[in-house]
UniProtKB/TrEMBL annotation:
Broad class of the protein's primary localization: other
Identification of the protein by name: Oleosin
Superkingdom in the source lineage: Eukaryota
Localization, UniProt: Lipid droplet; Membrane
Lineage: Eukaryota, Viridiplantae, Streptophyta, Embryophyta, Tracheophyta
GO (cellular component) term, any one: monolayer-surrounded lipid storage body
Length: 137
């Protein structure tokens, strides 16, 4: 039994010392992918620097045209987005009013009815108060 344990321990230590083929393949794959990524990032950086070098003089030359055009485009876009937002809000409001008038009780109709009843009650109280005030004079 002790002999078997010593052989097992010896074989485990031999396995730890010798590199396995999949470890070598993992290392080569990592090195290949890392190197490829490094080359790709270098090419991207080089291309970006070349593009900036070419585009900068063009932007300086055409900036009196591009800056006002960009501003006009921004204002036009903001106008269309705002107009669309107002249109959506109006459609939602008209849809709610249509449902309220037709008696479908949309969300918030109960609160509106309570407010209407409170205003009517207050108006009735003021009317009675005015009537009693005018009779006493």
């Amino acid at each position: 039994m002790a002999d078997r344990r010593s052989q097992l321990a010896l074989s485990r230590s031999d396995q730890d010392i010798t590199p396995k083929s999949h470890k070598v393949v993992k290392g080569l794959t990592a090195a290949t992918l890392g190197g490829g990524s490094l080359v790709a990032s270098g090419l991207t950086l080089t291309g970006t620097i070349i593009a900036i070098t070419i585009a900068t003089p063009l932007l300086v030359i055409f900036s009196p045209i591009l800056v006002p055009a960009a501003g006009a485009l921004l204002l036009a876009t903001a106008g269309f987005v705002t107009s669309g937002g107002f249109a959506v809000a109006a459609i939602i409001a008209f849809s709610w009013m249509y449902g309220y008038v037709m008696g479908k009780h949309p969300p918030g109709a109960k609160t509106l009815d309570q407010a209407k009843a409170m205003v009517a009650s207050k108006a009735q109280d003021l009317k009675e108060q005015y009537a009693s005030h005018t009779q006493s004079q």
